[in-house]
Amino acid sequence: MPNPSRLSVLVALAAVSLWCYLNFVTILKATAGRITIDSTRLRRWENLPDVANGQCVVDTVANACEDVNIHAASSTAFLACGDPAGRVQWFPSARFQPSTNRAVFREQFFKYDLKTQTRTELQLHGLPSPDHDIVTHGLDIRAIPGDNSKILVFAVNHARNGDAILIFEHTLGTDALHLVREVRHPAIKCANSVAAVGPRSFYITNDHYYPRGILRQLEDRFGPWSWATSVQYCSAEEGQEVVCEEVSDTMPCANGLAVSGNLVFAGDSKNGSVSIYEMENGVPNQLRRINVVDVGAIADNIKILAGTGDPLVTVFPDGEELPLFLSNVSALGQTVFAPTAVLRLRKERNFEPELILRDNGSLLTDMTAADIDPKTRMLVGASFLKYGGFAVCQLPDNIDMS
Questions:
Q1: What order do you get walking across the sheet with 56-59 strand by strand?
Q2: What is the pLDDT of residues 348-372, one digit of tens each?
Q3: DSSP label of 330
Q4: Residue 96: per-residue pLDDT
Q5: Where are the transmembrane segments (predicted)?
Q6: Residue 304, Cα to own-chain centre: how many angstroms?
Q7: What average pLDDT does the chain have?
Q8: pTM for the whole structure
Q9: Is the pLDDT of residue 319 over 90?
Q10: What is the dihedral of CA 83, 45, 203, 278, to 10 degrees?
Q11: Handedness of CA 150, 154, 158, 161 (dihedral sign)
Q12: Which of 347, 343, 381, 376 is nearest to 365 (CA)?
């Protein structure tokens, strides 16, 4: 017969365990810093008519282009593109774990000449090995001081052996990207966007705290957490150890990122906001938040409108049903649609959001990034899951580029 004292202890432990199980979510929310977001705030641009999408052409060769940056001097768009079917198997920000039946993931980079309207796939040179994974995400470009013939291309790479920032050199007019540095650091773990500051220095956002495993599953299930993500500044100078440090306030889901002069713009895709930071005394690892703009929708990538310094923010006006899109990648833009919009935050109006373009999803479904070339008045919009991964839109004359 069981010892009464021991039985009482077991009953008490069972009762406590049952209570913890039934109240697990409440406990986790209270202890993990989960925040509640008012979803009505994220519907400001919902149910509006289309704007400035009347002259858009979808490219049908490049697929799943998550990010785009326009080199203003040459009116050339650079795009980080991929494989929709492969991204269902492995794309860290979408929760998927490594595929075991693929030898290598090899996604692509493209350029698009807006003057001649020609697309070119860029050939990669200097990769660490022939079977090195290339899974693209955020992208940025930077001029090389004193050399107008070349640029640097900074790209997030989600290799299965860990995230990295790839720094390529590109000679304008060619079809080659030459790898000059693969930057790895424990702080580059769930990389989303990258924004170059110098030839070997940059900011990144991590869109999750945990890259994978049971803790990542808990984060996806019970987040967003207020402390989970932030902006990191990394320096990877030649011959020196890579150094990364947190330089912003924490936020639930850091996403888009852009730099204009001494200002740094960081978007939060869960909270629908853009935080604006100033480099104190021009020092890139000393940021001071000076403003937070509610953009009224899920905010993705951020670009800078050339000549103005104003950020362009790509948003999902009706929200983003990621599980639905991942299950129907071949139907995106065909029978499954996700409206999208591009907002301009004008500095002269205290960064008040202004609608530049809106599409019901038939052309620019699930668009994650958009950039504008003022000289040709063309907008290039990119979608990270869609077959036919980017579209080029000739903007009407009533859209002010000044």
A1: 56-59, 390-394, 378-383, 367-373
A2: 999 999 999 999 998 889 899 999 9
A3: G
A4: 66
A5: none
A6: 15
A7: 91
A8: 0.91
A9: no
A10: 170
A11: positive
A12: 381
pLDDT at 215: 86
AA identity, residue 362: S
Tell me how far CA of residue 256 lies from CA of 207, 291, 314, in angstroms: 9, 16, 9
Q: Which residues pair with 170 in a beta bridge?
A: 151
Contact call for residues 274 and 267 (beta carbons, < 8 A): yes
Tell how far CA 305 is from the center of its chain.
Answer: 18
SS3 label, residue 393: strand
Sheet bearing 254-260, strands edge to edge: 254-260, 263-268, 273-279, 287-294
Torsion of the alpha carbons at 232, 238, 240 and 242, rounded to the nearest 10: 20
Sheet holding 162-171, edge to edge: 67-71, 76-81, 108-113, 118-125, 176-183, 162-171, 147-159, 136-144
3-state secondary structure (DSSP) of residue 188? coil
**CATH second-level architecture of 43-394?**
6 Propeller (2.120)
Class of residue 349 by CB neighbours under 10 A (exposed 0-12, middle 13-18, buried 19+): exposed
The residue type found at 20 is C
> Distance between CA 325 and CA 310 in Å, rounded?
31
- Classified as helix, coil or strand, 174 is coil
SS3 21: helix
Q: Which helix or strand (DSSP H or E) is residue 10 part of? A: helix 4-22
Token pair recorded at residue 314: 């790509």
Residue 210 Ramachandran class (φ > 0 left, ψ -120 to 50 alpha, else beta): beta
Reported as type and span, the H/E element at residue 218 is: helix 213-222
Positions of E strands within 184-223: 191-198, 201-206
Q: Which residue shows structure tokens 């019970």?
A: 222
**Segment 214-231 mean pLDDT:** 89
182 Cβ neighbours under 8 A, 6+ residues apart: 128, 157, 164, 165, 166, 167
Q: SS3 of 75, please?
A: coil
Helix (H) / strand (E) element for 4: namely helix 4-22
Which distant-in-sequence residues (6+ apart) come within 8 Å of 16 by Cβ?
none
